């Protein structure tokens, strides 16, 4: 492979800088700059010396030399630690470029690792997540993926799908075995029904992982004067929104961000949804509707003292299909409380139970921080395809037509699952069949 080079550390003044080189000529070019042989024989060896180019000394460096395949990319790799001036790092990179290396493109070290089978796509994505993680929690989840624990969850499912598919294909391709047909449509349906909840559970965990990484949007809605703005202020622990006993005070969407056990939560206080002749209020209602459409969770606030009103019932109807958490505010004015309702008094400032309830409403618990999850948009969209393929297979099995028909969605499910791991979906499936069944024995 072509030899690539890049600085791995940020181009700012610091104690040390790291430069990475990978490819066929990594060692040869390094030897030229070092003026002596590297003699790398073990899995990873440390060398030190002075790098010079065209008679000019660049820097004293430490070199970590990894011969293929024992490196991150699977190729010959040299990692150079030099003094942390961006000038020095640049000079080293320039010297490698002059001697035949080329500057690496974005993510090229990781993509080489993938193509050389050092990591699967799930792990490759985790490297990016790890670098971009902004919270301790999302960093931990990325580490789980990088360790291969996430991919390991997929493999039994991939095998299960492979088995179901092989059972179908064997019936189609080798009809002479029909007499003692090993699998009936019923058997295949049973296999699929066992697989489906496992795929769905992966999707749910993935969505939760996505919440952790990207945060969620939570909108406060309810009738005027129920205490939405007071609740927002209490949750943010600051006076952000104007609170007044005059209905219709909040005309614009006010927002703020909090962290609930490491989950970034963006809160939006809306103007509420109601008919109005006031132009400004109407625009506020329009904005509120947009926020409601994108919010992952809605806090439907009710004045506990007043109880549920017609307007609240209408709101609930409007929000059908959304995740809703009902909050009874002004609990300080209520003597009788109904079990199971989330009571709070915004003016008391104590809203810890709402935070807990938000966490729980998303089915989140402390497990998510130690659960491997497939949470990138790429992974999730593929998993959703797998689920709908398996559902389709189940539906066709139930119709009881022919085994050939079930083969199509199963093949799709299997291929989509392989794509999650970055395996080639066009690869011939025949060898899979033969590896599972002793056809022609
Ligand atoms: N007693 C009591 N009054 C509250 C509580 N929360 C809000 N209020 C009052 O209810 C009125 C409306 O509050 P506000 O937050 O502006 O409601 P919004 O219109 O839904 O945003 C204000 O006079 C608040 O002081 C509460 O928990 N208890
Ligand atoms: Mg308000």
Write the layout of secondary structure elements.
Blueprint: E1 4-7, E2 16-22, H1 26-34, E3 45-53, E4 56-66, E5 77-83, H2 86-98, E6 102-103, H3 108-115, H4 121-132, H5 136-146, H6 149-173, H7 185-214, E7 216-222, H8 228-236, E8 254-260, E9 263-269, H9 279-294, E10 297-303, H10 310-318, E11 324-329, E12 342-343, H11 352-361, H12 377-399, H13 403-421, H14 430-436
Parallel strand pairs: 1-6, 7-9, 7-10, 10-11, 11-12
Antiparallel strand pairs: 1-2, 2-5, 3-4, 4-5, 8-9
Helix pairs in contact: 4-5, 6-7, 6-13, 7-12, 12-13
Bound molecules: guanosine-5'-diphosphate and magnesium ion (MG).
Beta-strand fraction estimate: 15-25%
Q: Report the mean per-residue pLDDT as an integer.
A: 87
Structure class: alpha/beta
Number of strands: 12
CATH architecture descriptor name of the largest domain: 3-Layer(aba) Sandwich
Q: Return the string of H and E elements.
A: EEHEEEHEHHHHHEHEEHEHEEHHHH
Care to describe what's here?
The protein has 441 residues and is of the alpha/beta class. The protein has three domains: 4-115, Probable tRNA modification gtpase trme, domain 1 (Gyrase A, domain 2), CATH 3.30.1360.120; 149-209 and 374-436, Up-down Bundle (Four Helix Bundle (Hemerythrin (Met), subunit A)); 216-368, Rossmann fold (3-Layer(aba) Sandwich), CATH 3.40.50. It contains 14 helices and twelve strands. It has helices at residues 26-34, 86-98, 108-115, 121-132, 136-146, 149-173, 185-214, 228-236, 279-294, 310-318, 352-361, 377-399, 403-421, 430-436; strands spanning 4-7, 16-22, 45-53, 56-66, 77-83, 102-103, 216-222, 254-260, 263-269, 297-303, 324-329, 342-343. The strands form two sheets. A six-stranded mixed beta sheet has the order 3-4-5-2-1-6, covered by helices on one side. A hairpin with a 2-residue loop joins β8 and β9 (263-269). α6 (149-173) runs antiparallel to α7, α6 (149-173) runs antiparallel to α13 and α7 (185-214) packs antiparallel against α12 (377-399). The two termini are 44 Å apart. The structure holds guanosine-5'-diphosphate (GDP) and magnesium ion. Guanosine-5'-diphosphate binds at residues 222, 224-230, 243-245, 249-250, 329-330, 332-333, 345-347.
């Amino acid at each position: 492979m072509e030899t690539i080079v890049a600085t791995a550390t940020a181009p700012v003044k610091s104690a040390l800088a790291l430069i990475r080189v990978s490819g066929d000529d990594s060692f040869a070019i390094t030897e030229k700059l070092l003026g002596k042989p590297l003699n790398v024989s073990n899995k990873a060896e440390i060398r030190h010396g002075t790098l010079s180019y065209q008679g000019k000394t660049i820097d004293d460096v430490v070199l970590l030399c990894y011969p293929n395949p024992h490196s991150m990319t699977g190729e010959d790799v040299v990692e150079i630690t030099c003094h942390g001036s961006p000038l020095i790092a640049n000079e080293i990179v320039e010297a490698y470029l002059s001697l035949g290396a080329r500057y690496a493109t974005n993510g090229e070290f990781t993509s080489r690792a993938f193509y050389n089978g050092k990591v699967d796509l799930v792990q490759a994505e985790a490297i990016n997540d790890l670098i971009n993680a902004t919270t301790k929690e999302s960093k931990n989840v990325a580490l789980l993926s990088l360790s291969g624990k996430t991919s390991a969850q997929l493999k039994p499912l991939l095998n299960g799908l492979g088995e179901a598919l092989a059972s179908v294909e064997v019936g189609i391709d080798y009809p002479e075995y029909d007499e003692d047909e090993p699998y009936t449509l019923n058997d295949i349906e049973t296999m699929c029904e066992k697989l489906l909840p496992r795929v769905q559970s992966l999707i749910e965990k993935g969505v939760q992982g996505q919440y952790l990484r990207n945060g969620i949007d939570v909108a406060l809605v309810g009738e005027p004067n129920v205490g939405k703005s007071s609740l927002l202020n209490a949750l943010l622990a600051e006076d952000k929104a104007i609170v007044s006993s005059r209905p219709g005070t909040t005309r614009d969407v006010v927002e703020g961000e909090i962290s609930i056990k490491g989950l970034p939560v963006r809160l939006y206080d809306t103007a509420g949804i109601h008919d109005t002749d006031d132009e400004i209020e109407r625009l506020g209602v329009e904005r509120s509707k947009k926020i409601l459409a994108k919010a992952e969770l809605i806090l439907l606030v009710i004045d506990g003292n007043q109880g549920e009103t017609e307007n609240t019932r209408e709101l609930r109807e409007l929000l059908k299909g959304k995740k809703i958490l009902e909050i009874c505010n002004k609990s300080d004015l209520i003597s009788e409380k109904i079990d199971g309702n989330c009571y709070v008094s915004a003016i008391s400032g104590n809203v810890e139970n709402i935070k807990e309830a938000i966490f729980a409403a998303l089915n989140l618990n402390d497990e998510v921080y130690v659960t491997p999850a497939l949470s990138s948009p790429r992974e999730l969209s593929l998993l959703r395809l797998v689920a709908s393929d398996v559902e389709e297979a189940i539906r066709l099995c139930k119709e009881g037509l022919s085994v050939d028909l079930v083969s199509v969605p199963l093949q799709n499910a299997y291929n989509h699952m392989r794509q999650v791991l970055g395996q080639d979906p066009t690869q011939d499936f025949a060898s899979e069949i033969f590896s599972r069944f002793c056809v022609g024995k």
